[in-house]
Amino acid sequence: MSGATRENARIVFGVLVVLAIWEFLGSQTSWGVAMFPAPSRILAQAFADRELYWLHGLATVRTATIGFVFGCAAAMLAALLFCLSPSLELAFRGVNIALFAMPAIVVGPLLVLFFNGDWPQTILAALMVYFPAMSATLLGLRQVDPRLADLVAAYGGGETKLMLHVRFRGALPSLFAGFRVAAPLAVLGAVLGEFGSGTRWGFGAFLLSALPQGNPARLWGIGLAASLIALAGYALFLLPARRLAASTSAVTLSAVSPAAIAVSSGGRLRRIAFALVALALPFLLWWLMVTLTKVSPIIAPGPVQTILFLFEGRQASAARHALGLALGQTLPVAALGLLAGLAFAFVLAALSLLAPALARALMPVAMVAQNMPLVAVVPIVTLVFGRGVTASVFMAVLVVFFPAYVLLQQGFTTVPRAASDLVATYGGGRLKNLVFVAVPYSIGHLFAAARLVAPQALLGVMVAEWLLTGTGLGNLLNVSRGGLDYDMIWAGALISILISVAAYEAVGLIERKVVRR
Amino acid sequence: AGTPLNFQSIWINDPEFSGYFIALDKGYYTAEGLKVNYIPGGPDVIPQASLLTGKADIALTSLIETASAVSEKGAPFKIVGAQFQKSPDSVISLEATGIKSIKDLVGKTVACPPLSLGTFKVLLGLNGVAEDQVKIVPYAFDPTPLATGQVDAVIDFMTSLPFIVEETSGKKASFILFYDSGMPFGQDFVTVTEDTLKNRRKDVVAFLRASRKGWNDDFADPLKYTKEFENSWYKGNGYTPGAAEYHSKIQIPLMQNPKGVFTIDDESIEKNIASLEKIGVKANKDLFDTSLLAEL
Amino acid sequence: MTYMTINTSPTPPEAAVDLIIDQAGKTFPTPRGPVVALAPISLKVTRGSFVALIGPSGCGKSTLLRMVAGLEQPDDGAILIRSKHPEQFRKEGELGIAFQDPALLPWRNVFANVAFPLQILGRPIKPNNEKIRALIDLVGLKGYEDALPSQLSGGMRQRVAIARSLVSDPSVLLLDEPFGALDQILRRQMNLELQRIWAARQTTTLLVTHGIDEAVFLADEVVVMHAKPGRIAEIIKVPFARPRTPDLFSSPEFHALCDTLTAALHGPGAAA
Amino acid sequence: MTYMTINTSPTPPEAAVDLIIDQAGKTFPTPRGPVVALAPISLKVTRGSFVALIGPSGCGKSTLLRMVAGLEQPDDGAILIRSKHPEQFRKEGELGIAFQDPALLPWRNVFANVAFPLQILGRPIKPNNEKIRALIDLVGLKGYEDALPSQLSGGMRQRVAIARSLVSDPSVLLLDEPFGALDQILRRQMNLELQRIWAARQTTTLLVTHGIDEAVFLADEVVVMHAKPGRIAEIIKVPFARPRTPDLFSSPEFHALCDTLTAALHGPGAAA
Ligand SMILES: Nc1ncnc2c1ncn2[C@@H]1O[C@H](COP(=O)(O)OP(=O)(O)OP(=O)(O)O)[C@@H](O)[C@H]1O
Ligand SMILES: Nc1ncnc2c1ncn2[C@@H]1O[C@H](COP(=O)(O)OP(=O)(O)OP(=O)(O)O)[C@@H](O)[C@H]1O
Ligand SMILES: O=C([O-])O
Ligand SMILES: [Mg+2]
Ligand SMILES: [Mg+2]
Q: Membrane-spanning residues where (chain A) (predicted)?
């Protein structure tokens, strides 16, 4: 039996043990019966519900697929444009982050207002997909081997030829990493959208209707089924990506670090100028949208109204106070969530180098956890972590780690063999390879991952606040929508987006410091 | 009238809306010349907002949100009827916990939806309980914490939860209506904008009339429709037949009024306004327009 | 200003000048301060001549070639190929280049790598199939058309790059140590082939090499460079008649010239 | 089974064998079918001897070196260094290697690239500062300690790789065409330095080279390989006394041996 087979056998054994323990806890303990249903019960319930699974599942798959296609198409197009014109990327950075960092609790109700049918959840899925997929693709397009760029230039090829013949092909593994991020996120977005939008079909709707029925086996079954669909989406793009990565990484090491290539150039003044444009553009688009659609200002206040809400009139100081209080609760936890999420993503990605079989075994578990609708796991999370900071950070990690993990793992797989060979000849094992080669080589991916996590962490904590702790910005926004207090909602969204942008830029600043020494 | 009447519901399809389903299925709306387009609700669906964007012409809303939108944001809403005379909002607990009145919540943990938090706190105050005497945690529609004893009580509609908790935990559950504890509110108020009221008054009246017919059918034989809708309107909504039956029956007394379902009169308006005042929401009688009911 | 002019042996007075380098130098800014890769140098190369560049490691040979290809901008001065700026000239598809590092596209097999310049130049591949195969054959890689770079040895990769530099039938050819990873037998073969191709097409060729014998065998003139700063130290004409045959390698005149060149390389100003 | 044994000239009968290659061959599976990079070969190298490998491009020299370093597994047979499997042996930090490609880590400057093996081996850098600087000096890169690979010429990069291969004081040294990108002057210098280091530390050395003169100058024995399939054709002893000085290059015996080697390379079984 080869080493790999033996390791796989050990993992199968491990999985069986875990299942057995789960079965025992889920059927023999009172709390298990109530909130941690045994696999057998989940399966039995799912079998009884099979017709519903079919109806709801079909809707979710359709919504997620359409959202995936739209989101990825937009991501690819945007990445292409941003690669061709880094200035454009700088200018649109604010819009990009805003699209990504917009809390679902805020977007959901708005989408439901302006779109009919399956569109709200489809658009939510596309929105969740867009930014991570765009980031991954852009990273791949940018990290072109300078030797190949020289070759194209020497034959008179311009940016178009370079794009066509080198960048596209070189970015394929990253594109597939983007797809791998996007597929589960599309499912998550669809489920989240269905959960809120009042649609009748889809796992989100199924979940919502199952939730008050006190039937944890059904709840977990729905969650696991949604996770499996997400996992299938992930796996779909994993196999071709593996093959692609092998044929894409250069045989020899380029003299230029790939991360150094992707770091945007330009003087400080230019960067500041574009940062201002980036800041202004979302406001401009916001104003345009509000003005053109002529929506009631009660629901869609423009930028001016929102700023006035915060700084003028009787309610301003009360509003600022409420927001300040909420932020004071949310921000520290979000910072923790960011670090914890990144750390978890890093550990998981590192395991894919250090203990590939273990990583293969952990991956589905982590994916299921990430895609398990949070509402379904609230009771068990509460049981294990309570309702304090730990629980919030845990929920944030669940929400956050996945895109970061995929990007990191992608970075690790593009390391040219020549570099790993060097470590091997000096007796270095996987750990040294990770520390001395894989991490520095894919430092660009590491920072890209951190930039993704920064806005996500805030969102994750807000979800936890809404479901678990009833504090902070997440709770404030949730409560405000009941009171139709859209001024507060937009103000809160605005502030959370500004914070996300700031975090994103801070990561970029650190990257520039680290990469260009 | 060829223009459809978009009707925004307040929650996902369940027995809470049987009357409308009956009216739809039996063609009561069509008979009135209406083309009603039923839009289900959900956690992200804010019916008042649907009215404001024009997505809906008529909506079921909660009073607190509607009233505060009118008084604080100047929203042009009018309430033309109330589906529930008494709101099903309740404190629900296991009987064994011994919570018989709001006072008994002292020292207990209560799961409360963030949206109801303000109301609940006032309710505590009205019953002489200080806020910090009760531990309040967020509630997200899941009865598991109650069934497992993670919390002592939850704030939710009593229309299905007590049944479900009894089924799953095997223990008797009980509820205390907010209505009966100093907070008399109605629920699922039929709401329109002033524009709609002006331009489509006839349609709104017709809607109320047809809907009332539907509800009357339901009151006459709730179980018949529960069965009937199991594979149509309710399909996929997670209810067991038992829970649906329980829901259908228990809600009827909360809706019925000698003058017919949807009735609002001076007395109920006063009660509702008084309750609003208790939680600090200003409202006056103009919020309600009872003249349409008079035309039914 | 004086030019160091290089002509093919019996120069007709009107011989066109293909390459003019006029006081072009290159200094790289680095965090540790500017590095002078090449002091301003001037050079003229007439059409169809074969010029070899030799000089110690780091003396700016690659930098010079990259400037001629328009991949680096000279700090001052100018570079003109056939009266055009390099950026303009290379668009015409008349430039062939083999870098010091083979720079193959890892996802393309040998055939597609050799064909790559044609694609960049927007020329069709199909009609050139035969030519591509012939070039692959020429560099001894027949049978490896479908192999990926990762499946080739170091010398094989370099040979792919040589074939690629010739595929566009360039009229100006820049070769940066193209035979560095080849054994002597193959190297001699490639020298002969290169001479044949050059003669047949009158390709103006700049060859960077560390092989003094190779330089003497192939070139009309050998440009000897010195380092610190990189500069042209001397230009030595090679008087041997064309076509040159392998017995030249064993002729005493050949050895004498090689010795002269070795001395020039060692010359008084030559830094280690 | 017969071994081709290589010994340092006056072999004491008990001379330890550092490297045993026993019927080790390597076939790469490719989509186009298996490629025999190396037919099963056997070879013994005694401790402290210097062996040069020469052979045409693609004959399996790099593959052989990579198998010795444990980077490729032989299909069959075995390879033992000091009675250990390569994977085991290299952990001891007794192996030094310079690949055909310099493989510098682009984010590390010259100093840190040279120091890299020490870090992998878990040895401290500080106490070795002087040694690292001396090695950088040895390869002529004094003053470039802080330069990044992208700021170096091709030959300079290769020299960094040479310095790196020596930094761990290896007792077994594998060098894959380390001087390919160097000019002849520097190459001779490096040849002499390599001989000095080898002699001082009795480092068992395997050197892949295309320079027949280099092979003869440095090696105790020259392994001549042929291609298609890659195999050992002949092993030729080099009888010249140690230490060898540059005048050896001009001695008639030296030239005679080089001619013998050239003939062996061309030999009847040598494919193009
Ligand atoms: N991008 C760069 N940044 C900084 N310095 C550079 C850069 N490119 C080259 N140099 C420096 O310029 C000098 C000349 O480099 P070049 O590559 O032209 O040398 P070369 O003659 O081709 O040497 P070799 O024979 O080793 O290839 C070297 O000292 C090198 O360090
Ligand atoms: N990973 C691989 N996959 C398939 N074939 C390979 C692989 N590595 C090497 N080969 C083949 O094995 C043969 C020997 O390659 P190797 O690199 O050992 O040659 P070499 O003697 O070092 O040549 P050179 O002097 O050109 O570097 C070549 O024909 C090459 O195509
Ligand atoms: O259902 C949620 O994942 O929030
Ligand atoms: Mg060079
Ligand atoms: Mg090799």
A: 12-33, 53-83, 95-115, 121-141, 171-192, 219-239, 272-289, 331-355, 361-386, 393-413, 433-450, 489-510
Q: How many domains does chain A have?
A: 1
CATH number for the domain harbouring residue A415:
1.10.3720.10
Q: Classify residue C48 as left (phi > 0), alpha (psi -120 to 50) or beta.
A: left
Q: Say how far apart CA A179 and CA A186 lie, in whole Å.
A: 10
Classify residue A381: in a domain, yes or no.
yes
In a domain, A286, yes or no: yes
> D211 C-alpha to center of ligand 2: Å?
19
**pLDDT score of C6:** 52
Query: Is D90–A426 a contact, with Cβ atoms under 8 angstroms apart?
Result: yes
Structural domain span for residue A464: 35-516
Q: Which amino acid belongs to residue D76?
A: D
Q: How many residues are given for chain B? A: 296
Identify the H or E element spanning B193.
Answer: strand B187-193
User: How far off is chain A from C10, nearest CA to CA, in Å?
Assistant: 32
Say how far apart CA B114 and CA C271 lie, in whole Å.
80
The pLDDT of residue A398 is above 50 = yes
Distance of CA A253 to the CA centre of its chain: 31
**Which one of A107, A185, A192 would you pick to mutate in the ligand 3 pocket, going by the greatest count of ligand atoms within 8 A of its CB?**
A192
Q: Is residue A6 part of a domain?
A: no
Size of interface A-C (CB pairs under 8 A): 67
Q: Which residues constitute the domain of residue D137?
A: 102-169
Does D5 map to a domain? no
Q: Tell me the pLDDT tens digit for each residue of B133-186.
A: 999 988 878 888 898 888 999 999 999 999 999 988 889 999 999 999 999 999
User: Residues near A500 by Cβ (< 8 Å), separated by ≥ 6?
Assistant: A97, A98, A100, A101, A454, A455, A458
Pair D19, D43: CB distance under 8 Å:
yes
- Give me the DSSP letters along A29-82: SHHHHHHS--HHHHHHHHHHTHHHHHHHHHHHHHHHHHHHHHHHHHHHHHHHHH
Please report whether residue C194 resides in a domain.
no
What is the rounded distance in angstroms from the CA atom of residue C271 to the CA atom of residue C249?
29
Structural domain count of chain C: 1
DSSP state of C16: P
Q: Look up the ipTM and state it.
A: 0.87
A391 near B CB under 8 A: no
DSSP state letter for C84: B
Among residues B103, B101, B136, the alpha carbon closest in space to that of B118 is found at B136
pTM: 0.89
Task: Say how far residue D34 (Cα) sits from the centre of its chain.
Answer: 27
Q: Across the interface, do D103 and A437 touch by the CB < 8 Å criterion?
A: no
CB A257 within 8 A of CB A422: no
- Contact status, residue B111 vs residue B146, Cβ threshold 8 Å: yes
Residue C1 is predicted with a pLDDT of 39
Residue C42, in any domain of the structure? no
State how far the Cα of A441 lies from the Cα of A414, in Å rounded to an integer: 9
Contact D114, D135 (CB under 8 A): yes
D30 lines ligand 2 (CB under 6 A): yes
Angle at Cα C216 formed by Cα C215 and Cα C218, nearest 5°?
70
The tokens describing A440, both together, are: 């520095």
Read off the pLDDT of residues D68-122 as tens digits, 9 standing for 90 and up: 999 999 998 999 999 999 999 998 889 999 999 999 999 999 999 999 999 999 9
Chain A closest-CA separation from residue B18 CA (Å)? 16
CA gap C226, A185 in Å, rounded: 60
Q: By C-alpha distance, which of D222, D220, D194 is closest to D208?
A: D222
Distance of CA A306 to the CA centre of its chain: 28
Is residue A490 situated within a structural domain?
yes
